[in-house]
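Extended Data, panel c. Modelled sequence:
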Amino acid sequence: MHRRPLHAVLLLDKPAGPTSNAALQRVKWLYRAEKAGHTGALDPLASGLLPICFGHATRLSSYLLEGDKGYRATARLGIRTDTLDADGGPVAEGCIDGIEAAQIESALAAFRGEIEQVPPMYSALKRDGRPLHELARAGIEVERAPRRVRIDRLELVEWTPPFLVLDVDCSTGTYIRSLVDDLGQALGCGAHVHALRRTWAAPFRQPAMHTLAELDAHVGDLAALDALLLPVEAMIDWMPQVRIDAIFAERFGHGNVVRPNDAPMADPVAVLSADGRLLGIGRSDGHGLHPVRVLSTP
């Protein structure tokens, strides 16, 4: 099958079940794209926003990885699992009789703001070059250093024993599984993630997502599929921006420092051509606009 150069972003609504990579490969095949990647993998159990970057957009994916995220999590109280979610096996059970919404609300208060969080063993973090989940499956548990994360919003949406639903807005690197496990420990009954949905990821705070079923309905119709894409420029709406003329654009494209008069003092700063096409990402320090990511001309 002929692959085509494509430079854009798709806001995929990943279903629960497949891995993020499996969803990516399906989308890449549907679009017949030469190059594609995703920003921020979701566990197979999780659904929701998975931005798919095509072509030049993959060069900017790190800026999405570092952005804040939003989730709706359904937790099952009373059972703790080895993976901290419903895909794992139970390791402890506790009584949930008498737990009321007021008690949960009180416990949630300790998890708002900046907190220390120990990453789960079942994660892609590496120790001596090996992913922790490989060690975990081999029955090996290693000590993990706590990491500082930020919980901007943590709201109890619903409590219907044994399930509670939470809305979470948080910094990148936050493990919702660890958050739910820690909450279960605080309540004295144990808990695990029963279902998880990513509702947004910066800069896409109210994303118009597209499902695999929707994409499959347009298989072979590239015009209909392309109509669902966002331009690469959608990835940098949140950045300070500067437009440069054709002479500066050529120099910037070759990795040279340029000195436009109106460059904002910022890192990062989006660098656009005079007609609004994204040329790359720069760093402006008062001495010039330094190229950090340069996109070749589509």
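The chain has eight helices and 17 strands. This feature is highlighted in the accompanying rendering.
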